[in-house]
Write a structure and sequence with these properties.
The structure holds 2 protein chains of 2 kinds.
Chain A lengths: L1 H25 L3 H22 L23 H32 L4 H6 L3
Helix pairs in contact in A: 1-2, 2-3
Chain B lengths: L2 H20 L5 H5 L10 H13 L4 H9 L1 H23 L15 H23 L8 H18 L7 H26 L21 H23 L5
Helix pairs in contact in B: 3-4, 4-5, 5-9, 6-7, 6-9, 7-9, 8-9
Classes of the chains: A mainly alpha, B mainly alpha.
Chain lengths: 119, 238
């Protein structure tokens, strides 16, 4: 039981990564593959944030309010994840534009049919 | 790839990840105990204890992002810019400009509602990126809120679209201003993105030196950039 309470966020983010990887490997619809990529992205971000987490720690923001002085979580992974989210957004935007062009060219988003076309 | 094969791959991967969990505990929770001595460098603990006096920003994440790792943030902004550029190139070159059917004009209620809400969204985004050194948030988050306002315009007010040239001009100028601030730090104190402005008192709006200034520019840049991406993806004519 203590294993679960200690590692529940790690289990969650590994599950997200695996689900995303399954979608990328198995599905043949381009939009679904992009959704899988975003799931992997979210899982990795969650992993990085939870590596820096300290139990009962607060956000690394000083304030004059009550409850200040509690131990704060690690700010470095949070800054890193902030960067990673922006990079993830740009990757997804670029992937979606490629999908739009592929759909205009082939008339389908099904990867099997796109692969089978000869040109 | 076959479904069975990919399931086998995933199973092997899951076993590997599970074995990583069984080892010695990982992360900051493990570092809190005696595993990490004080003479070893723990950046998180160091930033948490020293950032306020060194940068004057009460948001430690913002001070890490803008001062300690400012160069990384410049690289991040560059990646976003290159992605927007690649998207525009992909979607606008070699494409037969089919006029398509003209989009139906929105109803009066939707149109008026969008025009009413749009300035409020911009105001909220500006609030978020101006208070980035004090509260959760910052340039990127505020920029994303601003871009959601542009998305509302693209969806709801099809008649009037944001001026693309002006969006691009604001984006380029604020990106250049970010670099110029870094170069001023180089000229004044000898290091790129040096915090050369006075720190002021913590918890005040005008404090933390260059952090709010840089965040305002990042907010403008990201907002215009994401707004342009949204416009490109929604098929707006440039």
């Amino acid at each position: 039981m203590s294993f679960l309470t200690h590692y529940v966020h790690y289990i969650g983010c590994f599950a997200l990564i695996l689900i995303g990887l399954y979608i990328v490997l198995v599905k043949s619809n381009l939009i679904k593959i992009i959704i899988g990529i975003t799931l992997i992205d979210t899982g990795v971000n969650l992993f990085l944030v939870s590596v820096g987490y300290i139990r009962m720690g607060t956000a690394p923001i000083f304030s004059q309010a009550e409850g200040a002085g509690r131990q704060m979580v690690d700010p470095v992974p949070q800054a890193l994840v902030l960067t990673a989210i922006v990079i993830g957004v740009s990757v997804v935007a670029l992937a979606l534009s490629v999908a739009i062009r592929l759909y205009e060219h082939y008339g389908t988003l099904d990867l099997r049919r796109i692969r089978d076309l000869k040109w | 790839m076959g479904k069975a094969l990919s399931l086998v791959v995933l199973l092997v991967l899951a076993l590997g990840l599970a074995s990583a969990l069984r080892g010695p505990s990982i992360g900051a929770e493990a570092n809190r105990g005696e595993l990490l001595d004080d003479q070893k460098v723990n950046f998180g603990r160091r930033y948490n204890s020293r950032a306020v006096e060194e940068t004057g920003a009460s948001n430690v994440v913002a001070s890490v992002l803008v001062t300690y790792r400012g160069l990384d943030t410049l690289g991040e902004v560059t990646v976003l810019f290159v992605a927007a550029l690649g998207l525009a190139v992909l979607l606008h070159t070699g494409r037969d400009r089919k006029s398509g059917k003209e989009a139906e004009p929105p109803s009066l209620i939707v149109f008026t509602g969008c025009r009413f809400v749009f300035p409020l969204i911009l105001l909220f985004g500006a609030y978020i990126f101006m208070h980035g050194h004090l509260t959760p948030g910052g340039g990127f988050q505020g920029g994303a809120v601003v871009a959601s306002g542009f998305l509302l315009i693209y969806l709801g007010c099809r008649g009037r679209q944001p001026h693309r040239e002006r969006l691009n001009a604001v984006e380029s100028l604020s990106g250049a201003a970010f670099v110029v601030i870094g170069l001023i730090g180089l000229a004044v104190g000898g290091s790129f993105l040096l915090n050369f402005l006075p720190q002021g008192s913590p918890y005040a709006l005008l404090s933390a030196g260059i952090i709010p200034v840089v965040y305002v520019f990042i907010g403008f840049k990201v907002g215009c950039e994401l707004g342009g991406i949204v416009g490109d993806l929604s098929g707006a004519r440039r």
